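Collaborator request, handled under Task 6.
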Amino acid sequence: MESIFHEKQEGSLCAQHCLNNLLQGEYFSPVELSSIAHQLDEEERMRMAEGGITSEDYRTFLQQPSGNMDDSGFFSIQVISNALKVWGLELILFNSPEYQRLGIDPINERSFICNYKEHWFTVRKLGKQWFNLNSLLTGPELISDTYLALFLAQLQQEGYSIFVVKGDLPDCEADQLLQMIRVQQMHRPKLIGEELAHLKDQRMQKIDLDQSLEASHPYDGTGMLDEDEENLQRALALSRQEIDMEDEEADLRRAIRLSMQGSSRSSISEDIPQTSGTNSSASLSSEELRKRREAYFEKQQQPEQISHLHETPTTSEDTLETDTGDDMTEEDMLQAAMNMSLETVSNNLKTEGKQ
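Structure tokens returned to the collaborator:
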């Protein structure tokens, strides 16, 4: 069906569409048909002038508008007939008694031109099938051989004038293609007006549906968020959860660190060696604790004295006065203190084991 040339209606140029659909191509334009119409008007004027240019009939003819064309784009049967003569084609009135007496079966013809109330359209055989090429249709309409006679009879009853096109039509691609294949049409084309009305009805139904939905679910600004807003809110909530988790983890790490520091301090205080005459733990001042750390650091640098430290904690003034940890950081000093407390616990365990 795509190979069939079908010119759709524009304005009142149905005569142009009728001719081009018949010939299967853009053979005529409004300018060319207007030129033919003006030529016909001039021929008629010259015939009327033969009776005298001063006659009443001649003056009346000049005052009348052209009968071959008008400003809307309508062209008369005379214009169409003269346009087809260029191609060696002739029009014969199908309704005439003379043609009816010939008893020719319409299926044996090649094409028809139909007219009713200034509208022209073509019915043509392409290949082995008939098509209604009315420019008011959205596309070519397939007509079966059995329905062709009924279709033409129906047009006659509706008041159409039908003309048989006699002569050899120019070759066209659609005719050559449809000589080899036959087409089927599942859905018949609609009139352009009906199609536009159908599309308009669909738009109106959609508008009515939208209005109905809006009326049943009015939007007051507090309704559901759209998808983008919901995604944004979800992302913000997840971000807040991650921040809260990070804060909790930071608090937990801080508490563990404080707990470890507290335990270290407790161990240092509890693990200070007891005096020989007392069973309770003696509290050391910060200065004494510093001196013990310094002594421990000094012993760490003298591996040969480690065994002696395990057996007898050194408290001599010479050892305490050695200052080797002044250059260490607070974190290193704390680690060293923890190591010293572990050494003290180990010594106490050994002492208890000997007892």
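The cover message to the collaborator said: "The mean pLDDT is 76. The chain is about 55% helix and 10% strand. Please let us know whether this matches your experimental observations."
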